[in-house]
Amino acid sequence: MALHLVDHPLVAHYLTRLRDRETEPDGFREASGKIITLLLYEATRDLRTNPAPIKTPLESFEGRTVSDRVVAVPILRAGLGLLPPVLDLLPQVTVGYIGLERDERTAIASRYYVKLPPDIQGKVAIILDPMLATGGTACKAVEILEEYRPASVRLVCVVAAPEGISALQAAHPSVDVFTAARDRELNAQKYILPGLGDYGDRLFGT
Ligand code: URA
Predict the structure, then answer these.
(1) Interval between CA 163 and ligand 1 midpoint (Å)
(2) Catalytically annotated residue among 7, 88, 103, 201
(3) CA separation for the pair 148, 143 (Å, rounded)
(4) Domain limits, the chain
(5) By CB atoms within 10 Å of each CB, which of 85, 131, 193, 200 scores lowest?
(6) CB-based contacts of 171: which residues, under 8 Å, 6+ apart?
(7) Which residues of the chain have pLDDT under 70?
(8) Can you give the pLDDT at residue 107?
(9) What's phi and psi for 89, nearest 5 deg?
(10) Is domain 3-204 given the CATH code 3.40.50.300 in the classification?
(11) Of residues 29, 77, 102, 182, which has the active-site annotation?
């Protein structure tokens, strides 16, 4: 697994707004949308393109259009908040949903909802899950997706903990992770430190 730490002043700016406990849900949603747009820019850098001959108002021009097909897979619930910029930016993207719940005793994630488009085979799959904490959810989501034989799987998350990065690296070495920050550690409740709290709660005001 390759870890892509997106180091950019705008990413640092919006991540600070997300981390700030004073940021209200509307500001949190705005900063979330902007940081995901910036992370997507890196996460889609290797998409392939085809020649697209067009005519500008002045002359012929050999343009390019994205030829890779992408399926975005938000992990319920917080991943839903990452979807709007993906729908705005990616041509012809299809969307699948995975709902996972974690057994608090064993920390094992199991699926309670999976709704995926039928044609994932050969597509670039982008998992959207804002917090890579223990890695249990991310590993399970990759496992589910790989049953459908996508061309590749990548994860876009806002913050990653060292524990989650190691777990994903060990279980799924081919998955690339695009994130704004590699934080210090998990606390006893498996929250990321310094982190930003519960992403879903901050996003939805719950
Ligand atoms: N999920 C969150 O929303 N926040 C964390 O810190 C860890 C997991």
Answers:
(1) 13
(2) 201
(3) 10
(4) 3-204
(5) 193
(6) 135, 139, 142, 143
(7) 1, 107
(8) 66
(9) -95, -35
(10) no
(11) 102
User: In this predicted model, what pLDDT tens digit does every residue of 157-202 receive, in sequence order?
Assistant: 999 999 999 999 999 999 999 999 999 999 999 999 999 999 999 9
- Annotate the chain with three-state secondary structure: CCEEECCCHHHHHHHHHHHCCCCCHHHHHHHHHHHHHHHHHHHCCCCCEEEEEEECCCCEEEEEEECCCEEEEEEECHHHHHHHHHHHHCCCCEECEEEEEECCCCCCEEEEEEECCCCCCCCEEEEECCEECCCHHHHHHHHHHHCCCCCEEEEECCEECHHHHHHHHHHCCCCEEEECEECCEECCCCCEECCCCCHHHHHHCC
Distance 200 CA to ligand 1 centre (A): 8
Mean pLDDT of the chain: 96
